[in-house]
Amino acid sequence: MFSFKQFTIQQDRCAMKIGTDGVLLGAWTPIDNNPFSILDIGAGTGIIALMLAQRSNAEQIDALEIDEEAYEQSVDNFENSPWSDRLFCFHAGLDEFVEEPEDEYDLIVSNPPFYTEDYKSENEQRDLARFTDAMPFEDLIEAAALLLSENGIFSVIIPFKEEELFLALAKEYELHPLKITRVKGTPTTEIKRSLLALSRNENAIITIDELIIETSRHQYTPEYIELTKYFYLKM
Asked: Using CA atoms, how far apart are residues 201 and 148, in angstroms rounded to an integer?
């Protein structure tokens, strides 16, 4: 169990446990466009959808999860949260979901599985959650281009080494960067992740910055505390 300030997550049935990536995306994702409808692709525990329920006034927050155990856990986490009336989880793959799209979304978020290494572990459920073959970037971008409303925002967290490829693919689908934050664990480590927010509009000004998580073990930077203080109990 993982307790946040306004909700609690059960994660014993999910292959992918709560990690920094999901919390970063949930806290960082721009909501300046006051989204009415939100879609979380690959919900896992439901953490990102729950964080966005806390942060926004969106009335429709849908989540999509292909793994049955994670789907059921996500549903439970939604039902036990203060925003159960606004949260809904679909048990489906992205390909099924986009076949008959019923809605457009003002905000689409995803913490996609992105381990591209060739090895697989012995845990098939964890592999499905972690490996790119569960959801290639192009499928994700194509779905976002199909489902995003005119002034919608598409927000993801990916490995920094994939940033150039991801932005090039997005451009092919006429999705353009609005904001980019590159994440480092400490001041001396390499950039590990890219947080990307994209929109249908070509933006004259793109905000590009860097976020460092900690200066030393459990010594968090003021920027990281500011970003996560409404969620983590000890921030």
From this structure: 12
Query: 72 vs 100, which has greater pLDDT?
Result: 72
Cα within 13 Å of Cα(30), Cβ side: 19
116: pLDDT confidence band, cut at 50, 70 and 90? Answer: very low
Q: Are 70 and 16 in contact (CB under 8 A)?
A: yes
pLDDT digits (tens, 9 = 90+) for 210-222: 999 999 988 999 9
Contact yes or no for 135/112 (Cβ under 8 A): yes
Query: Would you say 194 and 182 are in contact if contact means Cβ atoms under 8 Å apart?
Result: yes
Tokens 């978020």 — which residue? 109
Round to whole Å and give the CA distance between 150 and 221: 36
E strand intervals along the chain? 2-3, 8-9, 37-41, 60-65, 87-91, 105-110, 148-159, 176-184, 191-199, 207-212, 214-216, 219-220
pTM passes above 0.85: yes
Q: What is the pLDDT of residues 12-28, one digit of tens each?
A: 887 777 889 999 999 99
Q: What is the DSSP string of 151-202?
A: EEEEEEEEEGGGHHHHHHHHHHTT-EEEEEEEEESSTTSPEEEEEEEEESSP
